[in-house]
Amino acid sequence: MLNSKIIMNSTPIIGLSIIGKLHLLTALFKEVYVSQAVYEEVVNSNSPRQYGREELSMMVKEGALRLYQVENSRLVKKLYGKLHEGELEVIVGAKELDLKFVVMDEHAARTLAKTFLLQPIGTIGVLIFAKKKGLIQEIKPLLDTLIIHDFYISKRLYQQALAQVDE
After folding, report:
1. Per-residue pLDDT tens over the stretch 110-156
2. How many C-alpha atoms does 89 have within 13 Å on its Cβ side?
3. CATH number, domain at 12?
4. Are 7 and 93 in contact (CB under 8 A)?
5. Global confidence as pTM
6. Number of independent structural domains in the chain
7. Residue 11: inside a domain, yes or no?
8. Quick one: which of 3, 7, 29, 25 has its CA closest to 16?
9. Is 107 part of any domain?
């Protein structure tokens, strides 16, 4: 899995940026793609919180992350409704690129990804992989920082993640 290619949604990009760990993606995965809609959502956001904006822009310019333009934009438009354009582009892009893994956190998007036979990994999953690979020492302080910055993590998921890495 860790030598795989992935495509990312905006929430994990923002979450990893909040804790200063967006760089983990290139250490964990062979190739990391970001769809055009996700890129625009993060980099051109009107949000007063600009998490991920500079990091994502820089990593794309440096070639560490690859920008991907979805070919089947008609399918994205047809599916648009319950999910955002970025989430749909991640799923459609993964199929076009023949990827197995998508990095996304939202439950509805993960559910749809599974129906397309994709395996979703969340922000916490990335942190777990990073700890198991020895790239970070602990995930608890990182999860706590995410929560302080209004990044939603259920108590159950928080506890499961810590148990999985013996913290």
Report:
1. 999 999 999 999 999 999 999 999 999 999 999 999 999 999 999 99
2. 21
3. 3.40.50.1010
4. yes
5. 0.91
6. 1
7. yes
8. 25
9. yes
